[in-house]
Amino acid sequence: MAFMTKPILKANTPDLLRDLDLTNDELAYLLDLAADVKQSPSGYAHALDNQSIALLFEKPSLRTRLTFELAIAQLGGSSVFVDGPIGLREPLRDVARNLDRWVNGIVARVFSQDTVDGLAQWSRVPVINALSDAFHPCQALADVQTVREHFGELQGLKLTFVGDGNNVAQSLMLTTLRLGMDFALACPPGYLPNPEVVSQAEGLAAVSGATLRITHDTGEAMNGAHVVYTDVWASMGQEQEAVERKKAFHKYQVNEELFDQARPDAVFMHCLPAKRGEEVTDGVIESPRSVVFDEAENRLHAQKALLLMLLS
Fold first, then answer.
1. Residue 6: predicted pLDDT
2. Enclosing H/E stretch for 56
3. What is the DSSP letter of 47?
4. What gap in Å lies between CA 132 and CA 193, rounded to an integer?
5. Superfamily (CATH H level) for 139-295
6. Which residues carry out catalysis?
7. What CA–CA distance (Å, rounded) separates 178 from 201?
C-alpha cells in the first residue's frame, strides 16, 4: 500500500464541473493539500498507482495538458490523450460510456460547458473541467494558491480583473469571494459576466463579508488592489471577433500607468498565453511584481491536489 504523508479527504462531489462543486471546507483543504504536495511530492508518488485517466482536449493547450500529464505521472498514474471534437463521430453519451469501462477518470478541455456536463452525466468515473466556455476552475485553484503564497493569507485581499467577463473571470469571482477576498471586475460595456454567475457571487460575498464590484471604470476597480489580473481579449473560438474586441478593449490594457494605480505591493497575474502589447504590456508582465510563472507552476500542484481528492 502506498504511504501518504497524511490521509486524503475525499471530496463529496464525484466531479469538478464548476467551481462551486467543492464546498468551502473542501476548497480550503485543497489549498492546504496543494501546498503539502508541492513541499513534499515524494510522499504522494504512488497515490494514483494503477489508475489511468483520459485527457480529452477539444482546444490546444500547453499548461493544461502538460500539467495534467505530469501531475498524473508524478502521482503514479498514467494518462491517454485524445484531441479533437467530442461527440462528433459518435454520440457523447457513447464516448462517456466507453471511457468509463477503460479509465478511472476523465479530464476534459472543451468549447461548451454542455459537453463536460454531458460527460459527467453519462460517465461513472470522475470528470474534471479543464476549461469550458463558462468556467476554468483548475486555473482559479492555482491562482488562489499563488496569491496565498505571496501574501500569506487570502481574507481581506483584493483581486481586480481587467478585461472580459469570461470563464476565467467567472471562476476567479466565485473562488475569491468565498475565500473572503474582495473582487472587482473592470470590463467594457457588452462584456459583462453571466448574470446567473454574478447572482451566485453576490450570495457568496454576503456570506463571507467580501465585496464584489463590477464596473466599466478601470481606476475605480484598481483602487486598493493587491492582485491585478487580465486575460487575452479574444479567446480560442472568438478569432472572428478579434478586430471588434480590440476596439472595445483598447482602454483596458494593463500597462505601467494602470498597474501603478494598484497598491505598491500589488502583483500581476495572467493565466497565459499572453498577447503582449494587447491586454498587457511587456513592461508589466516582465516586471519583478509579475507572478505569472509562479501561477503556471502551481497549475501542477493544485491539479495534483484535485486529482487526489477525486481519485485517491
1. 64
2. strand 52-57
3. T
4. 14
5. Aspartate/ornithine carbamoyltransferase (3.40.50.1370)
6. 109, 136, 139, 231, 271, 299
7. 8
DSSP class of 229 = E
The C-alpha cell at 296 is 503556471
Q: Could you tell me which residue, 262 or 3, shows the higher pLDDT?
A: 262
Half-sphere exposure for 218 (CA within 13 Å, toward CB): 20
pLDDT tens string 224-241: 999 999 999 987 677 778
| Element spanning 36, H or E | helix 24-39
Best CA proximity match to 43, nearest among 78, 73, 2, 72: 2
pLDDT, averaged across the chain: 96
> Do the domains 19-135+299-311 and 139-295 sit in the same CATH topology, yes or no?
yes
The topology (CATH level 3) of 19-135+299-311 is: Rossmann fold (3.40.50)
Per-residue confidence (pLDDT) for residue 16, from 0 to 100: 98
pTM of this prediction exceeds 0.70: yes
Task: Output the pLDDT for position 7.
Answer: 79
Grid cell locating 120: 459527467
Hey, what's the cell of 11?
471530496
